[in-house]
Each structure stands twice: as C-alpha cells, then as structure tokens.
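Thread: Newbie trying to understand structure tokens

Hi all, I'm a second-year student working on a class project, and my supervisor (Dr. K.) asked me to get a predicted structure for one chain before our next meeting. I've only ever worked with sequences, so writing a 3D structure as a token string is new to me. If someone could post the tokens and maybe explain what I'm looking at, I'd be very grateful. Here's the chain:
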Amino acid sequence: MKKFCVNFVASLSIIAYSSYASGVTRLNQSDAKVNGEFSEDELVNSEESNSRQVGKKNHYNLRIGASRVSFPDVKYFEAFYGSTPTQFSISSDWQYYVSDYVNLGVGGQFSYLNIGGKQKINPDVSDPDPSELQNAEGKLSLTVLPYQLLLTASAKPFGSGSFLSIDFWLGYEELFYQEVRLQNSTTSAESTSTPSLNASDTPSKKTSQSSGGKSIVNTGWNNGVVAGVSLNFLINKLGEKSLGSMKRSMGLGAIYISPYFEMVSKIGSKLLIAQQKSNDISFAHQNIGLAFTFKTAP
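---
Reply by user tm_fold:
Sure, no problem. This is what the structure looks like when written as tokens:
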C-alpha cells in the first residue's frame, strides 16, 4: 500500500510539475519586464491579459483543498469519532480546449484523513443503537486514504477568462482504511465495538502486545464511483501585483477559490488497481469543502 501511494503521489507530482515546466519560457520574458524593459502598468496589464486567455488552449489544473467528510453508511462512526472530520486532498488534471465555453480532461486525486476517537463498550445485544454504547478506556484512531481516477469537464458560462467557471468530475475511487484500537490490560478486546462490526465480513486484523496494553489493527478496502462539482471564482483581481510573481515563476495564468461538493457510492467489487477484495463495510462518503485551484497560462 505504501509503495502504491508513493507511486500515485509521484504521478500527480509529474502532472503538477508539467504545469511548472510550461511556465519556464514565460519566466525569461517576465524577468525582462521586471528588470525595467516594461513599466509596472504594462506588466499588470500583461498579467490581466494572461488571465483572460486562460482556458483558450490546453492547460493543467492543480487543486489543493480541505473538506468536511461524512460516512453515512458506517453506523457507529459518530459514536466513536464524532461528526464531520476534516479530509485533505490534492488533485490535478489536464484539460483539452473544446471551445471558449467547454473544456474536457482527465486527472486524478489523492486524499488523506486521520482522526482519533473514543473506545466504546458493546452492550449484550446483537445490534445496539449508537446511543446504547458506553464509554471505555483506550485510544482509537482511524486513517482513510482514498485515491481517484477522473474524467473532468469545465463549463465557462461567460466565456474563457471570466470570473466564474464550473468544474464537474466523474470517476473511479479506491479507498484503504486502517483502524487502530489500543486497549489497556484490564479491557477485553471482545468487549469493545468498532465501526466495522456492522459489516458481515471481518476485516484483516493484527494484534500486538506492549507495556501500554493490547493494540488491535483492522484494515480493509473499498471501491466506488465518484461524482463532484465545484464553483471556481477568479481571485486574481484581489491582488494582481502580488500574484504576478507566482504566475511568472510557475507559469500560472489564473487562481481561483473553489467551494466544492463530492459524493462517492460504493461498488463492492474487486479493486481494479490494488487488486484487493472490497470489504462489506461501506465507506461511501460525502465531502463539502473549499480549495484553491491553479490553472496554467497559455
């Protein structure tokens, strides 16, 4: 899993670096402007012109964001971990220019979530209500690592370079999860409940003993279909001069602030990339977040 994550992040890094490489030629030209061959007003006007031209040629997008995520199918999630933890993500895609109003592309996304929780004691009933669970000693943590392959589209209602664009994406997600329960020596492993107990199968388990007590690790996989949408508001005008340096050095033509919504529905088949069996527990999720979107200049 670690090796795959490294390779996946490396792929995204290559895409992002391509965005940087596309601006190398523009860097030399911009340095000449900064060194005095053009006035400051001409420099700003040039940057504004670049912003208007964004989206009129093939380009790359890089999005970095954070979102509040919920897992509605995990019955005991809120009882153990609370509600709406924060998930961080980075995505990149290449878009093909179709017209001044539409672009189509392909890309990928990698996300990370880690959250601590409280141990609970499962009462002597087969299917307890979350409110019936009682607090217990011991630490609890959950790590979730989703990665996605995406088809993307960008709609520009007012044409290329306008203050607003709308991004859509549809794709395939694989998700790895790991839950660690650290119990003291007086707590029985069988006396505690975990979110995985609402599944008909048992995730992979590893148990280790230390001076602090017994550590139980549950791991598993999910896969699903992802769909999302974002509204992208151009923020270049909020500080054209300060953003100019970043655009000249990294080849960026426009920067947007992007509220977004994403939903993942579980498939339940064998994973295509990781070649693992999908566990019965469903980590289908919904994300509401905010991101910065960087688009390369033409």
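A couple of things are worth pointing out once you decode it. The beta strands are 59-70, 86-97, 102-121, 134-155, 164-183, 204-210, 213-234, 252-266, 285-296. Residues 254 and 295 are 5 Å apart (CA to CA). Feel free to ask follow-ups in this thread.
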